[in-house]
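Q: Got a minute? One more chain.
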Amino acid sequence: MNRRKEVAVVSSCNTKFVPHLAALFVSILENSDPKVFVRFYVIDDDIELESKNLLRYSVKNSRMNTDVEFLKINKKFFKNLVTSDRIPETAYYRIAIPELFRGKNVERILYMDCDMIALNDISKLWDLEFNGAVMAAVEDAGFHQRLEKMEIEADSMRYFNSGLMLINVEKWLEQNITKNVLKFIEENPEKLRFHDQDALNAILHDRWIALHPKWNAQGYIMAKAKQHPTAQGEKEYEEARRKPYIIHYSGHIKPWSEEFKGASKKYYEKYANMTAFRCVKSFPKYPLYARVQRNTELSH
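A: Always. Here it is, folded:
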């Protein structure tokens, strides 16, 4: 397969997390093929205009052949689902993301959580052959028994982390994955420990292909907190630790917190320092900087 000249990256956040999303986007641009146009799509959870402007400035300052588009999720998808302080409506957003590309000329999208930093060229993932699979992802370290606990019959007990999903848009829409996942959540709330991630695995269990863990080096992989149940899997974990392509700060303590002590904090700091949220004080074009700072987690 020839490398595509445009890649689509999708993420979701609110105003407080935009600075961290900016760090992710800048890290992607700084490490990807400069000839590839990177189009970022942000699921807009009521992001303030000033923060949107700073995000756009951050990516354009990195390079020009890129763009940011803000999208809104139709909340009708979630009207029958349980929400709470622990499980907000936004937790369901990634399930419906492919529906936003219905009728558009977008073959695949890379969904990424905003607590990630890219250290390698994500456009390499556009060389991957799906061979009929709906998506590609990385196994979730230490949760290999979730399908069994949810009483899901599957050819494999592999369980993926939904923080990074390379989605075959046509197959997802063709097979009504969004509708089926939401139906599973509605009908089986007692089975769900990791809510939308559990439901995605329940529906997609035999319809995804595994990426090397380098592409989603989760917190407990980097910290050696959990072992893979197979020797080959453990070997790949070690390879991911030595040379991660994407670091996923998946633990409760994030790298923008003073409590985070992991060595990988340096990668977050490097790219956060390249965003407008860190350096905009020197640009009088953005007089509302102080207000933005007060409303983001960088000031917490």
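A: Residues 282-290 have pLDDT under 50 and may be disordered.
Q: Perfect, thanks.
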